[in-house]
Design brief:
- The protein has helices at residues 2-7, 9-29, 40-47, 51-63, 82-103, 109-128, 131-148, 152-164, 166-175, 179-193, 197-222; strands at 37-38, 67-70, 74-77.
- The chain has 223 residues and is mostly helical.
- A 3-stranded antiparallel beta sheet has the order 1-3-2.
- It is elongated.
- Helix 5 (82-103) packs across helix 7 (131-148).
Length: 223
């Protein structure tokens, strides 16, 4: 199998993603606890492959905030503290709120309709229990705003932050407590449609801070 990985870039990506999904799911379900060591040899044996794709998967999970990877010492499941949650969502609220302010006078009617379509899809995925679909269209909703801001540096910063703390979004989606976010999303679209930048910024910030409150409850419940 390792020969196939080296000879086919596509196969390597598919395998890495399978490993990432398996570890991510174990962490989310609580099968792997915060602080627990992740063994490269054990994973290599489990999947019947060399350590190279294992290391690639661990690096990706480290970038998403699921693991803490220490050079030459291996990886452990990251702990989530209330301080982590507060700092992440406070920064996210500021950045995404500012992006909404910039986007409001620039965004097109077509993009606003796309945002509403994303929100409707998100509700369907939520009720169907489709976590990946829910998260995908949620990212698409906010990405429309970030792109419409016209500030590529801001858009990049928001993307990096979101990728690093993907674990938070997954926890909230799994908790089933994001129903209020759908109503907020509709209000955001309406504020942008009437070109009210103050309201759009405030609503996007409130949307991020809703996530903050939900995530703090999750962290405290786990601890």
């Amino acid at each position: 199998m390792s020969t196939q990985i080296r000879s086919s870039f596509g196969s390597s990506i598919t395998l890495r993603e399978r490993i990432v999904d398996a570890i991510r799911t174990s962490i989310i379900k609580g099968d792997m606890r915060p602080g627990e060591r992740v063994s490269e040899p054990a994973l290599a044996e489990r999947f019947g492959i060399s350590r190279t794709p294992i290391r690639e998967a661990l690096r990706q999970l480290g970038s998403e905030g699921f693991l803490t990877v220490i050079p030459r010492r291996g990886a452990r499941v990251s702990t989530i503290t209330e301080k982590d949650v507060v700092e992440f969502y406070d920064v996210r609220a500021l950045l995404e709120g500012y992006a909404a302010r910039l986007a409001t006078p620039r965004i097109s009617a077509t993009e606003l309709d796309q945002m509403l379509a994303c929100n409707e899809e998100m509700e369907k995925y939520h009720h169907a229990g489709d976590l990946q679909g829910n998260l995908r269209v949620h990212r698409a909703f906010h990405e429309i705003i970030n792109k419409a801001s016209g500030n590529e540096q801001l858009r990049s910063m928001i993307s990096i932050l979101g990728n690093k703390f993907q674990r938070f979004s997954i926890h909230i989606a799994l908790s089933g407590k994001n129903q209020e976010a759908f109503a907020q999303h509709r209000d955001i679209v309406q504020a942008m449609r009437i070109r009210d930048a103050d309201a759009a910024e405030a609503l996007v910030r409130a949307n991020a801070l809703l996530g903050k409150g939900l995530m703090i409850k999750e962290v405290n419940a786990e601890s």
